[in-house]
Amino acid sequence: MTRPGLSKQRMIVLIFSLFIIHCSLFTVSFAEVPRRIVSLAPSITEILFSLGLGDRIVGVTTFCDYPEEAKKKPKVGGMWNPSLEAILTLKPDLVAVSTNGNHKEFEERLRSMGINTYVFTAHRLSDLPRDLREAGQAFGASQRAEALAREIEATLTRFKKPAAQRKKRVFFIVWPDPLVAAGPDTVIDDVLNLLGAENVAGKARVSYPKYSIEELIRQAPDIIVIGDMREGIQKMSAGLLKRLQSVPAVKNKKVYYIGDDLYRLGPRTIKGIEDLSHLLGDKP
Q1: Is 14 helix (H, G, I), strand (E, B) or coil?
Q2: What is the architecture of the domain spanning 37-158?
Q3: Chunked mean pLDDT (size 10), the chain, 284 residues
Q4: Where are the domains of the chain?
Q5: What gap in Å lies between CA 201 and CA 147, rounded to an integer?
Q6: Global confidence as pTM
């Protein structure tokens, strides 16, 4: 017969062992700090540069256009269809991928070939500080990562509005023709909620829903925000706005343009929050 005390002791050991295994699944450590990194997502590229690791990046996707130095890095294709041959040519000791944009199958293929991979898992605004800290630890930049994580946490605390104060109905346009909005499960939706605004497209079935002119008129948003301040976007938006003269946001001249800082989850998100808060007329 097994003594009760011994059974309890074994149970404690088993629980502790399972805890260690669980943690190991989410913690990545490398025998040596990666020196040749290929980034397969624009958000990852921005994070790596913000951690002071730009000189270690040897390859990026064609979408990696920030900061300016990223444009000069060798290209390995797009996020969804990177070239395995181009990646291998760069002889990386690590490829950084994201669960928010890269295909799981490609990551598994890299692993099957013995190529080290690091997976960024942040998808929502609240995930970002954790992802930064984990990346800092893995890439040998813990101090810088901790500083960035704390800055983001402070920004979220500073700008957070109680749900009861939500009065402004905002429609955020990510592309004017065809008309595409920022819907649920996006960084933009997270930020609108953070700032106490109601996202008109927040209850859509997809993250970036298409809208008809008639539907937008029916929704009658108080404020329209158009992302990306490039001249081409503004020209396309001009024709759209002419057809929305009856919408409160247009009638009351509450149509604003904003940069693309909220399009990618990374350090620039802080500036995006500050800019959107300013446009909405809020003061933290």
Answers
A1: helix
A2: 3-Layer(aba) Sandwich (3.40)
A3: 48 42 42 88 96 97 96 96 96 95 93 94 94 94 97 95 76 96 96 95 96 97 92 89 96 95 94 95 67
A4: 37-158, 161-279
A5: 34
A6: 0.84
